[in-house]
Amino acid sequence: MLQYISNKGGVEPVDFETAILDGFAADGGLYVPQSLPQVSRAQLQQWKNLSYVDLAFEVLSLFIDRSCLSKAELKQIIADAYAPFEKQEIIPLHPLKSRPDTFIMELFHGPTLSFKDVGLAFLVNLVNFFLARKDQRLSLIVATTGDTGPATAYYCAGKSHLEAWVLYPKELITREQERQMTCLAQPNVHPFAVSNCPQGGDDLDALISKLYGDKEFKAQLKLSSVNSINWGRVMMQTVHYFYGYLQVVDTLDEKINVSVPSGGFGNLCAGALAREMGLPIKTLLAANNNNACLDRIFSRGLLSKQALHSTPSSAIDILIPINFWRYLFFKTGSDGQLIKTWMDQFDATGAIEFDAHTYAKYSAGFLSNSATDEQTLALINSVYTTEGYLLDPHGAVSLVAVDRLKEQLGSEKLLCLATAHPAKFPEVIRQALAHDVLPDQALHHSIEKAKRLSEKLYVCEYNVVEYALRQAMLSNWQFTQDRNRLN
Ligand SMILES: *Cc1c(COP(=O)(O)O)cnc(C)c1O
Questions:
Q1: Which residue, judged by its Cα, is nearest atom 11 of ligand 1?
Q2: Is 114's C-beta closer than 6 angstroms to any atom of ligand 1?
Q3: DSSP strands (E only) in 45-134
Q4: Which runs of E-coded beta strand occur in 144-297?
Q5: Does 230 sit in the ligand 1 pocket, CB within 6 Å?
Q6: In a mutational test of the pocket of ligand 1, which residue from 106, 316, 400, 425 has the highest number of ligand atoms less than 8 Å from its CB?
Q7: Do residues 379 and 298 make contact, with C-beta atoms less than 8 angstroms apart?
Q8: Which of 341, 352, 405, 420 has the most beta carbons within 10 angstroms of its beta carbon?
Q9: Which of 188, 218, 258 is nearest to 480 (CA)?
């Protein structure tokens, strides 16, 4: 049976259900599978013509023991998760006219218009399924740089066994993203706007870790998280790499390159693990904005926490690529002790310079770039003007990296991941196109609809957030317990 362990090496192996419901491992590490399943060429051949949903079933089955989830249950959860996506292909590929063999992978056709829907659709439904089976309720907390929050809120809304607390840095996300959380009618979703966070979403992630560390509070409120620490998201995100590869290659002798707009390294970690499982990816391109955290890691071997810059690609204004630790675990030959030493050192000092041997191991097969704000805006403009295709700022960061590293990438087919719909970032689009009137591609009916709805949210300042959040969560939990008893 495939079991899960902590990448810090400090917990006994657990089954899949426990890894998913716990979120964090008890030693503060991230859950990883004890070994990575391998995919043979014959398997890839069999999967060649599968739909996204059928392929998801095959890939996820490699990670999930049937004693946790039967075939029929897994099929049903996947089907329910992707039913709200608006394109039948789930993840369409758009070939660019201006660049040969370059496909924009549109990961943003879920209900909240970002790539976060891809992972959370499955994970939230899975968590609710496990809870319903045990007849237990949980409080989920997530922090968001703008997209995790809406996706979590949407998929939790109205779910029988979940309360969802969604924390966001008030000034650092767009109004469109905010309304995706605040305009939901269902009473089990609690958007929590926090003003004046010095380090943005990372501050709120730190708060969540702290609440998790409070064993009494955690037990009392049955806390869990579906943030990118949760293995379920990384696992689900491996699927689109397999899908994209099988869609674009003519034969399985081909390798491809993939460019990924990155912040927390969740999406890239999934791509890297897919490659470790045997998917023929030549180069993974870590595309950063000015918050060049991954670029420093891959170009210089340096992980270092620096001041946050606000950029047009705000969903990747992230300084701590938490999922890098998950990938590094596999690249050190599953050395949990070493990962623990590094993670603790990074928590204490905010910086690590990796030794040459480690650097050589983890950086093989990676390139990186950091796009300036000007490059990002200019690229949105030029692709729209030359071929009428509108990229969101994150997709643009991804394509800037491709253009700048073309020589090193070579001539393989390339997937350029576009992770959000431009309708979430109207101000950036106006600025990029130097035009006040938005083109149709920058509009979406769900965004327009939300403008006509009322909003419901908690608001507080960063300096009181811990107390305010604890109080709000406690009173809500008490209230819902009482009400459930009365019913
Ligand atoms: C979250 C997000 C990313 C970054 O994904 P990571 O897994 O954190 O690297 C990129 N683009 C958008 C639009 C996002 O919401």
A1: 419
A2: yes
A3: 93-95, 102-106
A4: 162-169, 189-195, 223-224, 256-261, 281-288
A5: no
A6: 316
A7: no
A8: 420
A9: 188
109's tokens: 């056709």
Closest CA to 424 of 438, 439, 444: 444
Give the integer Cα–Cα distance in Å for 86 and 68.
Answer: 30
Token digits of residue 376: 């990002």
Structure tokens at 17: 């259900």
pTM of the model: 0.96
Ligand 1 atom with the smallest distance to the CA of 265 is 9
Close Cβ partners of 44 (under 8 Å, ≥ 6 residues apart): 242, 246, 252, 278, 279
User: Per the structure block, which two tokens stand in for 186?
Assistant: 């269902």
Please provide the DSSP assignment of 2-58 as one string. Answer: --EEETTS-S--B-HHHHHHH-B-TTS-BEEESS-----HHHHHHHTT--HHHHHHH
